[in-house]
Amino acid sequence: MQDWKINSERVYFDAQGGFPPAGVDHQQPASIPPLSDADHPKLITDTTLRDGAQDPRFALFPHSAKLRYFDLLHKLDNGTGRIENLEVFIYQKRDRWILEKLLERGHEFPRVTTWTRATPKDIKLLVEISQGQVKETGMLASSSDHHIFDRLKHPSKEAAVEQYLAPILAAVENGIRPRVHLEDTTKADLRGWVIPFMQRVLQETGGWACFRICDTVGWGFPDPHAGPPTGIPQLVSLLQQETGAELEFHGHNDFGLATANSIAAWMYGCKRVNAAFAGLGERTGNTPLEQMVAALVRLYGDPGFDLDVLAEMADLMGKEVCPVYSKSPVLGGDIFTTQAGLHQTGVQRHDEAPGGLIYLPYSPSVVGREEVELYRIGGVTGMEGLVAVLNQELKTRGENPRYTLVSRTVKRVYDMIHDQYDGAWDETERAYVGPRVSFFEPGELLEMAIRVEEKA
Question: What is the DSSP string of 184-233?
Fold first, then answer.
């Protein structure tokens, strides 16, 4: 570990408004470090009520939904402590009221933390309103020259360090651990500002401060060959090796890589990953919390999460905040549904398959979905899916299943379905016209079958 000095020259990463290069130049790849106390056990922190509340799809995250979300998050963590923190704002009257009510819950995990700007007055406000109950706060420390000079108008990189240090030290003086948010790290001058700044903060705080690496505009890339600052494995490895600090990663999903980058951050030395439920957040949103919960279970084993709660959380979000995309991994209402004949055949044979599930990644019950729509009848549906839907509709009506693959009724209904999807042949146009473009509902299909039987 060497002492790095601040580079007074400006360093910009300007893609001229286009897609930025990934920087995969086949250099020596980053190495996965052995697990240590500095980066294990792996933890998740939650920004749903802070960065997630900035999502442009809704004007306000309802107060009651925030409180209910916190209770469900506590239930999901289930006493494991692996969902460590939940962060909130403190600026508006409603923010301070929410903070008070969250603290009244008395939940050990997730702990309630806050977010402040790089000003001592923000720390003074936090001390006044929390009365010693908040033990850690996020503190904005914009790290790229794009922000230091172009947005914040600091006269120099040295001046930025001094301004950021004042509130950090004020927090320490009041017994509050500073979690320094290095905004825009994936566009920052790492050796010429980020590392010397981190080293200075650690020196001034006696090593108490921790740091959040922020991929603010989603430029990060998860390949270990991609160079820093955009290459997440090399970025995390470099900062960990040169500072020894506890690191957290905060990703954005502008290129659909937030989850991959967050997993890479864990693997290459970050102890924490910051996430928002259902990927809420600015632009394309933050790393989805539920995906990191699943990743933690797959990579490091289930610490004891109550995964059934995920369905409750999705229902709360969809009803009170904003819709959850029906195909969203882990959460969506349609993620176990199949239309294609081959897939429906595989799903039909799950129960007697000695090798387990065939066309589902995991049982819906794992994430609290006891009743799901497995089959949808559309233009590429096969016979087995049709049989399953018809028999399920009979059971719903209190009747015994009676349809099989060799049933003439099923074959006739199958032909009728695809006649509608073909459309009618128009001799003048020499084309099929007016094809059906909607799915068949279960009740509609059973009525078709009944009419076929009546005519037989």
Answer: TGGGS-IIIIIHHHHHHHHHHTTT--EEEEEETTS--B--TTBPTTTBHH
DSSP 19: P
Instruction: Give residue-wise pLDDT tens across range 392-413.
Output: 999 999 999 999 999 999 999 9
Q: Which residue has the tokens 């702990």?
A: 111
Task: Decide: 327 and 64 in contact? Cβ < 8 Å.
Answer: no
Query: Which run of H or E residues covers position 345?
Result: helix 341-348
What's the CA gap between 446 and 450, in Å, rounded? Answer: 6
Residue with tokens 């294609």: 340
Tokens representing 121 are 């007055």
Distance in angstroms (rounded) separating the CA atoms of residues 148 and 136:
25
For residue 442, whether the previous peptide bond is cis, meaning omega lies within 30 degrees of 0, is: no
Q: Where in the chain is the domain with CATH 3.20.20.70?
A: 43-320
Q: With CA atoms as reference, report the closest residue to 115 among 94, 138, 149.
A: 138
Convert the pLDDT of each residue in 357-405 to its tens digit.
Answer: 989 999 999 999 988 899 999 999 999 999 999 999 999 999 999 999 9
Map tokens 């570990």 to a residue: 1
CA-CA distance, 132 to 358, in Å (whole number)? 53
Q: Tell me which amino acid residue 264 is.
A: A
* 86: Cβ contacts below 8 Å, ≥ 6 apart: 45, 46, 48, 49, 70, 73, 102, 110, 111, 112, 113
Tokens 């030290």 identify what position? 169
d(CA 214, CA 440) in angstroms, rounded, equals 46
Report how far residue 265's alpha carbon sits from residue 271's, in angstroms, rounded to the nearest whole number.
8
Number of neighbours of residue 314 by Cβ within 10 angstroms: 23
pTM score of the predicted model = 0.95
Domain 43-320 class, CATH top level: alpha beta
In one-letter notation, the amino acid at residue 323 is P
Cα–Cα dist 308/285, whole Å: 24
Residue 41 CA to residue 272 CA, distance in Å, equals: 9
